[in-house]
Amino acid sequence: xxxxxxxxxxxxxxxxxxxxxxxxxxxxxxxxxxxxxxxxxxxxxxxxxxxxxxxxxxxxxxxxxxxxxxxxxxxxxxxxxxxxxxxxxxxxxxxxxxxxxxxxxxxxxxxxxxxxxxxxxxxxxxxxxxxxxxxxxxxxxxxxxxxxxxxxxxxxxxxxxxxxxxxxxxxxxxxxxxxxxxxxxxxxxxxxxxxxxxxxxxxxxxxxxxxxxxxxxxxxxxxxxxxxxxxxxxxxxxxxxxxxxxxxxxxxxxxxxxxxxxxxxxxxxxxxxxxxxxxxxxxxxxxxxxxxxxxxxxxxxxxxxxxxxxxxxxxxxxxxxxxxxxxxxxxxxxxxxxxxxxxxxxxxxxxxxxxxxxxxxxxxxxxxxxxxxxxxxxxxxxxxxxxxxxxxxxxxxxxxxxxxxxxxxxxxxxxxxxxxxxxxxxxxxxxxxxxxxxxxxxxxxxxxxxxxxxxxxxxxxxxxxxxxxxxxxxxxxxxxxxxxxxxxxxxxxxxxxxxxxxxxxxxxxxxxxxxxxxxxxxxxxxxxxxxxxxxxxxxxxxxxxxxxxxxxxxxxxxxxxxxxxxxxxxxxxxxxxxxxxxxxxxxxxxxxxxxxxxxxxxxxxxxxxxxxxxxxxxxxxxxxxxxxxxxxxxxxxxxxxxxxxxxxxxxxxxxxxxxxxxxxxxxxxxxxxxxxxxxxxxxxxxxxxxxxxxxxxxxxxxxxxxxxxxxxxxxxxxxxxxxxxxxxxxxxxxxxxxxxxxxxxxxxxxxxxxxxxxxxxxxxxxxxxxxxxxxxxxxxxxxxxxxxxxxxxxxxxxxxxxxxxxxxxxxxxxxxxxxxxxxxxxxxxxxxxxxxxxxxxxxxxxxxxxxxxxxxxxxxxxxxxxxxxxxxxxxxxxxxxxxxxxxxxxxxxxxxxxxxxxxxxxxxxxxxxxxxxxxxxxxxxxxxxxxxxxxxxxxxxxxxxxxxxxxxxxxxxxxxxxxxxxxxxxxxxxxxx
Length: 977
What we know:
Distance between the termini: 26 Å
Largest sheet: 6 strands, mixed
């Protein structure tokens, strides 16, 4: 029998439990309300309701292509395969071991063969649940018979500690968590080894590396002196196992990495590799493209987008890559607080000599004997002992094809060239002299006249490219490339402070990559192997032009004057010497810039929130005006039309705060602005679901694979496909493409950036985004700018000179703004010099608005640090939007704006940019000129509130009952007395 005392105890426990649950559910619901928009993008639901109050004109800024969802999924998947097919790059093909005969019996080696790298992590992830595995792809249509015993052996290691290839996480993984994941051959069973004989036509070995958002690849060794991008001991053992078995007729290496690995082992007799394919991050079905390349259905036409050095640490940029802490970090934190994230820095001491610009220039100087540090007493140069063939395994732009023994079946010659005030116009005749149909990439490079000790210039630079159609054997096609003068000029930051063309002879050449083109240029200058060249060039692949006097190119795309804007990005601004690498003296090869001490001025500049001062003087902001204009009525209205002023003045201060601080994703009833979704990313919108059936959208190949196609028309097709996915997932904004530079091989997000070259990156990105925006999207080109490493990305001070910023890091962005007319850009967490990128006026106002004439939205990276990503300084200096759907920045803004008229005016200016761009997108589809919008709770919020109400009622009921029983007990005790 339950006693009264026991019942009382049960009630007390129930009250305690229910009160705790109530507190937790209220807290969770409150927190969820701050992220309502974001949560709805993940699990569904809407935070708004639209009501048409009349018969106004309905907005339709773009719609799906009319296919059924099933048809579209097949079409989208075919685009994934097409991009991968043209991006896969043939690096070696000894004795034409490839393609393999259809029906060949093959063995797939390497644990990664069962777990291909599809993309990267974070914004560029691809959902593996939707991916085609390599065995399935190889066996489709009976292309190949795959060794099941070995496949099952590797598959059995999935998830085992020590054999897990960590892909990082959204905010990064520690180096100790990254493994190659290759089981030791000592664990190979007899059954595995006995299976070789039956599947011996070829051994195909997959080597994978993966990077991720928030975490660069480890630059330390693994305890045995091995670098992460080098061949690991357990991988060497696999190759030796294949060789020593004596069973396999051919060994094919597949490089499944978007980061440039060390590949000198490919040509080592020690491992017996006969053929090699680079495939990058393949996307959801790129494995099928790989199978088609292996059996010859597809003739590979990709070319490398990075220089593959024999030593992945050998570039000058690697010396100053990673974790560097200010010498007086404690003083900095004490003066301006830890929240400013201001104690880390990185110095780009390599200047313009990034990627091939270093390796090829070093080679050119070794050949032409221009190394000033090696002069004899008479002043004659003695050259440079630096050896290109030992330094570089595969040059930027390199790639082979099937159809001829040397892997180069396509001949190219410059058949016509003209030079005028607009630039260079070159026609290249391409002929397929092989026995297999295929496509050929035309790469045009330039060399500017260089004076020893003068302006820094690369000995070769990509200035344009094109790709043929499929050419049958014997067929020819002409490819014309037009190059603007700016694209082969130099930025003179110290002298004329603008772009210049120096007097002298300019050489142009085509070739199979930067190195081949450079050899052709050197041949045109009279050099050959006798002077140290590693191969004789072909003069028929060159053209030259002589400029009699130097020319200033100081007019921007908008007609304004181009002059220095990034002086404060260099250490010299603070009276310190950087010591940049100079071509005139290669002994200036940089050392790590350690123990940098921040001066008082630097510390003041590092204090982002301290750089903004409220101001109530001047023009009084008009808000909450009753003009009866909704967002639908602003579609197609020019940016400079005065109607925008009236429209913006309708917004209340709270409306402005929500638009600016919540990614433009929160509904604003005042102007009938609906909830607008924006989402990642560079590999597709596959974290979102198709509206029709709730399945994930397409996972495309990594951006490096797209760039490796060297095919701008295919990039347009990709952009159209990606737009379709965004439309079918009700997502208006695309956080893509990403165009930062591969400054080093170890940057964690190289997979979602195109290349080490700004011209290639800029053209591919521009082609892709233009078709996306034509379909009604707005693209956020990212991460703007100098976000070239993930280590300390939040707040790191990035010091670089104006020339390198202009010629290397801004190059891709500039084209997407000026030619692509991007509607938006996503900023970066890092600082430019000592100033947060989102508050760097010279970039955001002087360059974007004035030089480039852009009206694009300037967004932050995800707004998680209101001190660094400060609202006041950001708005004042040109940032327009904070990438978040939470209330953190909004709540900070509510306090800041109370006594600050200037901030209200700045928010109105920002809202103008935001609403102008979004008004032309699918984000407001369905809105009419008579629509009103109401905020509502999404379905899951109503469920949550219902749970809270039920728990609250139960808790109250238990409390009431407990009180009654307590009183009753006390009364009984009194009665007993």
